[in-house]
Amino acid sequence: MMLGRTDGIWLNEPKHWTENGNSLEMVTDNATDFWRETHYGFVRDNGHFLGFQAPEAFTAEVRVQGDFQALYDQAGIMVRIDAERWLKAGIEFADGRAMISSVLTDGLSDWATAPYEHDARDFRLRVTVAQGVIRLQASDDGKLWPLMRLAPFAKNSSYLVGPMGCTPERAGLRVVFSEFRITPPLGKDLHDLE
Questions:
Q1: 2 partner at 20 to 30 Å CA-CA among 15, 139, 178, 179?
Q2: Chain-centre distance for alpha carbon 35
């Protein structure tokens, strides 16, 4: 059982990981990433992702604790249909600091970042998928959930969702994931921050 569930499937299982009740600790392998084409011209699909089955509409949340130090260190949550349709989001170290970051991929990847004004060593993410839309929220305390991103997302009968971590420039980012849950979509107003 991982993160309180029995249906987790690793994509690119890291060499080092442990589970303890409802938490998962992983240490990233060297040169791992998820990316498709844009700007760099390459495809990387070797990042670490522990996916859990989710229906066609859902909300998922996870708490992430890590010490992001090197360029492109990243960890958070991923929603995935296949190698060409996915979203990853969380903290990513870039431009000398921890940034709140998301990459939405539909054949090609985009990348959106903004400075993270809270403690990047401990944060939460919430993602809701429903009716061809993905809504991404981040929280520093689990109480207020400001909008991070709203975007069209491929409709599918089911998705994989769960913790994600990558280190394109090194190995050794230690991340702890906890408080993971998948529920029916919250259906809250766009500006309802709870």
A1: 139
A2: 13
